[in-house]
Amino acid sequence: MTVHVVTDSTADIPADIARELRIDVVPLTISFGDERYRDGIDLTADEFYERLALTKVLPTTSLPPPALFRYAYEHLSSRGDVVSVHLSHKFSGTVNTASSAAAEVAPDRISVVDSGSASMGLGLCVIAAARAARDGASREECARVAEETSRQVHVAVAFETLDFLRRGGRIGRATAFLGGMLRLKPILTVKDGETHPLSRARSRGKAIEELLSLATSFEEVSDIVVLHTTTPEDAERLAERARQARPDARFVVGRFGPVLGVHGGPGMLGIAVAAQDRRDEV
Amino acid sequence: MTTPADRRAPAALDGDALARAFAGGASALEQQADAINAINVFPVPDGDTGTNMSSTAKAAANAARAAADRGAAAVLRAAADAALMAAKGNSGVILSQILTGLAAMPPAGTLDASAFAAGLERGRAAAYRLVSAPKEGTILTAISEAAHAAGVAADSGTSFEEALAGAVEGARSAVEHSPELLPVLKEAGVVDAGAEGLYVLLAGMLRALRGEPVSVAVEGGAIDPRWLAARQRLHEDGAVGYCTEFVLNAPSLDTADLRARLAEMGTSLLVTGEGAAARVHIHTDDPQPVFAYARTIGDVTQEKADDMQAQMDALVGRLDGAPPRAGTKIGVVAVAAGDGFGELLRSLGAVVVHGGQTMNPSAGEIARAIDATGAARVIVLPGNKNIVLAARQAAEAAQADVSVVPALSVPAGVAALVALNAEEPFDANVRAMEQAVAGIAAAEITHAVRTTTIDGRAIREGQAIGIVDGDLTVAEDSIEAAVHAAIGQMVARREAPLVTLYYGEEIDEAQAEAVANDIRARDACEVEVVRGGQPQYAYLIGVE
To answer: Nearest chain A Cα to B344, which residue?
Structure first.
């Protein structure tokens, strides 16, 4: 039976890949004051960052209305099984909304998976599940692939500042990296659904080197994702270096969506790798 | 029980006599501290050997007096324990190790010649073990010679006093020969300060036992002790402004006229000397016009100007750390001079002990800072090679589990703190910090305070010099040129170097920014300008 893969718009999967792998993306909501937009549908990432540069009021984000999940699940479960993979419950109530919608619509045909990650960490789990679905795997197998991938995904994100993360209440254990008089570039990771401090770099160049080391510190890397909010050249530079180090890996280079952009701020640059083994401790 | 006859020529010392001897030695060192400080071997004002040894000896003498009625072994133990905690600077720490060697005697009420000689020998061994690359012509040679001479005397069955006299003579001979063993001393025309300190201490002890005045003439010291004594008195009432000193050489010097002119420029004026040279001391709010005036008369050398308010502030607020944070797993103690550095290091989570090249904190101060972190496991960043031994000593004394990460410059200490990640285990942090320290080059830019030759390189007084990773490799005519030369050496072979320019108290932000812009243009590297506020060094530079 066909398995449909669903995620939310925080997975930051580029539209062409979502189309190719038939991934259904449920949008979160972006609000500029009273104006509300569906992430990626009414407002693309590029439009969002243009708008962000001009606005005085910081936008807010909210999880998808339950009706959107119900609608997607009703529509898809009538034509097959569903695996729905989402942002860590520690960051957002999205996965809980998805679970309750699934329970209402068709509990025995829909598997909801908490990826324990966000953005491209989540994206890699979704893509892995979608590939399995395309290759004819069952719902249980696709869910298992998503869960397995979530354990193989390693993320490192360099910030220009932690102010946006702090204001959004998403700073978690990285509070120790706040403050200081040097222009430090904090580098965080996502572990067990929470942000954790990884290291601090003294300059942008050193931060990019740190991110690159994530791509080179494993025996086998199947996928690499590089995302940015406002620095496409840095993303290209990092991706190019990673390609040289990992010519066999599949690459996705793109932009953080508005939800991550609001919480990370300008200059955020991240890398996620799906790796089978650790080469050495990072 | 001692009789008056024993007191004159005791075969062995009891606790009381030993405490008296320590008091005499400490007092002699205190009197000569400035003279010992003055014999710098390096063109930067590095000289606090006398002060450091004196404060260490004084702590030992005080503890000895308190234990005087408990017998010789107890007196030595008390003196050694106090010295270990009070030890400042390399020479102070070495002195504390010598005392520890002496104290390791079998329990006995008195100290005789052979026990004394054996103790000095243990002290010698401990001192050599302490120093990773022992150099002869230093305090190490002085303790060797002293121990050897005491041993020879003891073997011929002499009294304690004769063994001590042997030790004094051994130390004196080591001082005298130090310039032959250490070329840098010969180049600078001085004897070794640490060796001198040990000699003064031993000679003071001997004089106290003999009932003679303890003041010991300093070997090879060129400064009139009356001058030093007069200057000392002037400093006793808390002064503000700059304590300014220099030596003026002119063919025909009218000291009366000089005195009259200088009297208008400041207070606490002191002019000594005859004929062609005068030594001047004056307290003034602005030393530059004083130097400028002196240069119109003749050749000015050995100039120095110390900010007395800053010195006092430093004394009052030396241990000025962040309040202990409950539940902190890993504490960090960093030693640095300068308010900018203090603020920066605290913002990175360190408890800061004020100190540096010329202001070495004691092992006790560092140990208190370790306690102040409130952490069970603490990393100490000494920030200067002269503080490593005191830091190690503090590490041993502290309750906490302590690692000293060899950050030998404050920029290296900053790099180490940036690598700190409280989420990671202690050992991983120590490794990360060691890696950060190994990956940074550091330079110190300052003015040479005297004309001298270092490593065959002639340096004129007043020239801007750069010390890159501990070696003096830059001598230029301006601070800016020295900065560029030092950075040129440090950025070579580095990928995408980041330069951090920490500007000192004598530099303002606009000057530092201008230098930074030049570096960006010349060396095509990222430059961050940070206020260090450090004394003496116009710039401290980190390249990573």
So the answer is: A181
Chain-chain contact of A181 with B347 (C-beta, under 8 angstroms)? yes
Q: Which helix (H) or strand (E) holds B540?
A: strand B539-543
Q: Please spell the DSSP secondary structure of A93-150, one letter per residue.
A: SHHHHHHHHHHHH-TTTEEEEE-S--HHHHHHHHHHHHHHHHTT--HHHHHHHHHHHH
Residues 6+ apart with CB under 8 A from B161: B9, B10, B206, B209, B210
pLDDT value for B312: 45
A207 to chain B, any CB pair closer than 8 A? The answer is no
Chain B residue with CA closest to A198: the answer is B421
CA B59 to chain centre: 17
Strand order in the sheet with A221-228: A194-201, A185-191, A153-158, A269-275, A221-228, A250-255
State whether the Cα torsion A81-A87-A89-A95 is positive or negative.
negative
Output the pLDDT for position A63: 87
CB B146 within 8 A of CB B167: yes
The CA-based angle B320-B323-B324, given to 5 degrees, is: 125
Question: For chain A, what is the mean pLDDT?
Answer: 89
Residues of B in contact with A202 (CB under 8 A): 415, 418, 498, 500, 528, 544
Q: Which of B332, B352, B410, B423 to mutate to test the interface with A (most CBs of A within 10 A)?
A: B423
Letter for the amino acid at A24?
A: D
Containing H/E element for B148? Answer: helix B139-155
Q: Could you tell me the end-to-end alpha-carbon distance of chain A, in angstroms, rounded to an integer?
A: 41
Least CB–CB distance from B498: residue in A176, A196, A202:
A202
* Cβ–Cβ contact B435 with A under 8 A: no
| Tokens read off for B316 | 């009052």
Q: With contacts defined as CB-CB under 8 Å, which chain A residues touch B530? A: 181-182
Question: Model pTM greater than 0.80?
Answer: no
Listing DSSP states for B492-504 in one string gives TT-SS-EEEEEE-
d(CA B178, CA B186): 8
Question: What is the C-alpha to C-alpha distance for residues A129 and A145, in angstroms, rounded to an integer?
Answer: 6
Most A CBs within 10 Å, among B417, B509, B526, to test the A interface: B526
> Tokens 């009070």 appear where?
B86
**Chain B residues in contact with A200 (beta carbon < 8 A):** 418-419
Q: Do B530 and A181 count as a contact with CB atoms less than 8 A apart?
A: yes
- For chain B, residues with pLDDT lower than 50 are 1-8, 42-45, 220-225, 232, 236-239, 312-328
| CB contact (8 A) between residue A202 and residue B544 | yes
Least CB-CB distance to A200: which of B418, B496, B544?
B418
b/e code B264-288 from CB counts within 10 Å (16+ = b): ebbebbbbbbeeeebbbbbbbeebe
Q: What is the per-residue pLDDT for B132?
A: 66
Give the CA distances from residue A22 to residues A16, B232, B521, in Å, rounded to whole numbers and listed in that order: 10, 87, 52
Residue B274 three-state SS: coil
Burial category of B191 from C-beta neighbours within 10 Å (exposed 0-12, middle 13-18, buried 19 and up): buried
Local structure of residue B385 (DSSP, 8 states): G
Nearest residue, CB atoms, B347 vs list A180, A198, A205? A180
